Amino acid sequence: MEFGFLLKIVKINLRHNFLPHLAAALGIALLAPVIFETSSLDAKLAAQPLEMFLCLVGAILFTPVFLPEQDENIRDLIRSKQTNYLAVCALRFLYSVFTLAAIIACFTLFMRSCESAVGLQHFFGAFASALFLGVLGFSGAGISGNVTVGYMVAMIYYIVNFTLKEKLGNFYLFSMSSGNGEGKVFLLAAALLLVVVVFEWKKVKEG
Predict the structure, then answer these.
(1) How far apart are CA 168 and CA 198, in angstroms?
(2) How far apart are CA 20 and CA 30, in angstroms?
(3) CA 13 to CA 15: how far, in whole Å?
């Protein structure tokens, strides 16, 4: 596909599919300072709003990647076009990644301006947790063909992190808040692996 055609697809998807989810994600980011203290925090406390609340942005952005094609009429229309359906979904996933990174980066800088002890490790840790939670929703929606299932998978796992905590090991979303954070690379790798698995599964199914 040519770059101009790709850009056209992105613009259409941003306008018709992405804006409501972007608004919800920004709402989460704006609500975080209301629920959590963000000023003059040490590194451990500063991780709490980033890990425990902003990770929900991942679920909001990535779970609906397959949402438009949940409508059977739209799905049949897309299959009749020459454009590869999964390529369009991959574009949606990619601009969701950039959006997630931008939101977390802006919030991290905001906390830094409030004299909290945040740094690059906080950005990376929050991004890894949010991406993993979002990919769980993305996987649930992609495999089941139902976005509601994806949201349920993400939210159940989010709640489990409050109950099982460190028992989840490298899969614990809030490890920085407990003074660790070593499992973030593992979360990021697991998220990327899940994305590959889901796209391959969809490719086989659609084929």
Answers:
(1) 23
(2) 15
(3) 5
Do the beta carbons of residue 109 and residue 31 sit within 8 Å?
Answer: no
The token duo for 164 is 């099982």
Q: Say what the pTM is.
A: 0.91
Give residue for tokens 């790709």: 6
For 156-187, the pLDDT digits (tens) are 999 999 999 889 999 999 999 988 878 899 99
Cβ-count burial of 98 within 10 angstroms (0-12 exposed, 13-18 middle, 19+ buried)? exposed
Give the amino acid at 163: T
Give the integer Cα–Cα distance in Å for 51 and 107: 12
* Chain-centroid distance, C-alpha 185: 16
Residue 191 near residue 62 (C-beta atoms within 8 A): no
